[in-house]
Amino acid sequence: MRRTVSLAAAVLAAVSLPAQSPRGTITGTITDSQGARVPGVEVVALHTATNIPYRATSSQDGTYSIPALPVGRFDLSARAAGFKAFQRSGLTLEVAQTLRVDMTLEVGAMSETITVTGEVPRVQTEQSTLGTVVERQRIEPLPLNGRHVFNLVKLVAGVRPVDRSTDGFGEITNQGFSQMSINGGPLYGNQFFVDGGMNTVPVHNEISVVPMVDAVEEFKVETNSLKAEFGQTSGGVVNVATKAGGNEFSGSLYEFFRNDALDARHAFSVSRDPLTGRIKPILRYNQYGGTAGGPVLIPKLYNGKNRTFFFAGYEQWRHSTSTLRRETVPTELERAGDFTRTLDGSGALIMAFDPATTRLNPAGAGYVRDPLAGNIVPRSRMDPLSLKILEFMPKPNAPPEDARTYSLNFISLAATPIRQGVTNLRADHRFSDKDSTFFRYSVTRNTRQGSGYGLGPADPDLFSRRDQRDNHNAVVSYTRVFSPSMINELKGNVTRQNLPFLHPSFGENWPDKLGLPAIFPRDLFPRVGITGVLALGANPTSAGIRAQHYLQLADVISIVKGRHTIKAGVDQRWSRLNWFLRRNISGNFSFASSLTNNPQRPAGTGIGMVTYLLGEVSGGQHEFNSAFS
């Protein structure tokens, strides 16, 4: 358990944002036509999507500030006795932005209105933070291989990804993708926030939930000169604002797919691969989903226009691919104990020596052994357990790379299926002009059934295991406007990951089926490594669970005093990590060629398969965990 408390208070020229919030601020100065400051002006920022107004009053020096605004488009108006009304439409507030809009009022009746058009200057003068906003105009039209929205972080200057093996397509762990250096910072020093809530889990500081593209409004990558509320990072910050519903119903349906039948062949692939019979590698990819948003309407019971809104989205991601893998397996003669054709790269016979004849060298130092008669292991000397496990060793299914050594005589095109579902649910409600709240819940459920070499319970590959990763992120926020100059935001957030990973042989009692001694736990197919050929059985990291979470509670109050804003708050986080890994629980056995070589002249002698068939274990491991902790 680790506690971290960050307390930030600052006096700024313009209001900052509540802790890690993606919400923005509109601020500026109000003057008359002679340049004199005008106090007591009522300013209203109207969020056009929801028709919700946000209010402020200019101070004695004519400064106004409206904090805690959602991202999106606003109409800004100002009214004061003795002056014509002021109206400015089409303002776009970006995530975590402080937008400066100065206004000049003209003397006249309030019934008259001055409408101002034109772009707001893009130069940021209200904050010292350096960063880049990736807005909706880039999120929607830019092609994304795999629709991994955080791929767009790489467009920002100063961001350097480390793992580019997938670039978001087929990215399923989030670990490698989370490793990026922002402005030279450490790989694990970044923070990801969604709607102001922390969206990382402790191990590797990895991203928890990757929101679906259609549920993201925009996000900002802050790279330097971070504000005080980001004191718990030594790198950069990615601040995401998700979509909220509005007064108009909207939605989408989509499907993206890829298939090797539609892929172009490689420029130099003029015929089918002689090993696989294929021209192109296997690829099956489907990604489909939809969104819906709008006001909450319950016929004859409730009309949520201008008050209560929802947004929901779901996406399913299915991916299956395979790559050619080549390994060396024993030949039919070697499986039968006949090593009369086991040759080295030069074509010379590799001699095997009988470990049962090992004795001190009567003529000098070290040991000596007698050659194995005829380079053949008699059936009577073959170990029964070795023969039983040998049944799971695949047989040669391809021409060897070297006809003398029979190397790389087995190929596998076993597919690796991946399934992932993403759900996003959000609700916003405004109780009054002073009180509002929102809630969002996102979950990613990812199932990876790695096939490895396709050998079932004996598969030795790390990714033959079944990983079930469920990531959850939920945030709830309550905002209270005590007065136009005092606003408080209370926020709670939880991020949770549950990741059990198990080898396909787990729980099937394979040690009993094979005849392994009772001293070994009956959990997995044992690991068997034989020098020179494909290993069998569970990888040492093939059984365990990783459960981790962050709990976050934050409260921030902003007080506007004239041209200045005082901001203070607390951000407390609790982290917990349970990582339980069962290594080599049913044994890990190795069979080296050194037990069947010539001790006096070992070079070019000794065969791992001879050692194995004789049951002469070279070494092994067995680890025991007492309990989950």
* Global structural class: mainly beta
The general outline is elongated
How many strands in all? 37
Treating each run of at least 4 consecutive H or I residues as one helix, how many helices? Answer: 6
Mean pLDDT: 87
Strand order of the largest sheet: 1-35-34-32-31-30-29-24-21-20
Describe this structure in words.
The chain has six helices and 37 strands. With 629 residues, the chain is mostly beta strands. The strands form ten sheets. A ten-stranded antiparallel beta sheet has the order 1-35-34-32-31-30-29-24-21-20, with no helix packed on it. The radius of gyration is 33 Å and the shape is elongated.
Give short descriptive properties of this protein.
629 residues; mainly beta; 5-stranded mixed beta sheet; 10-stranded antiparallel beta sheet
Short note summarizing the structure:
A 10-stranded antiparallel sheet has the order 1-35-34-32-31-30-29-24-21-20, with no helix packed on it. Strands 4-3-6-7-10 form a 5-stranded mixed sheet, with no helix packed on it.
Write the layout of secondary structure elements.
Blueprint: E1 2-12, E2 24-32, E3 42-47, E4 52-57, E5 63-69, E6 72-79, E7 85-93, E8 98-100, E9 103-105, E10 113-116, E11 130-134, H1 136-139, E12 159-161, H2 175-178, E13 180-182, E14 191-194, E15 197-198, E16 200-201, E17 206-207, E18 216-224, E19 237-242, E20 250-259, E21 283-295, E22 297-298, E23 302-303, E24 308-321, E25 325-327, H3 332-335, E26 359-360, E27 367-368, H4 384-390, E28 410-412, E29 416-430, E30 435-449, E31 466-483, E32 486-502, H5 510-514, E33 527-530, E34 543-561, E35 564-581, E36 588-591, H6 608-613, E37 619-621
Parallel strand pairs: 2-8, 2-9, 7-10, 14-19, 33-36
Antiparallel strand pairs: 1-35, 2-5, 3-4, 3-6, 6-7, 11-18, 12-13, 14-15, 16-17, 18-19, 20-21, 21-24, 22-23, 24-29, 25-28, 26-27, 29-30, 30-31, 31-32, 32-34, 34-35, 36-37
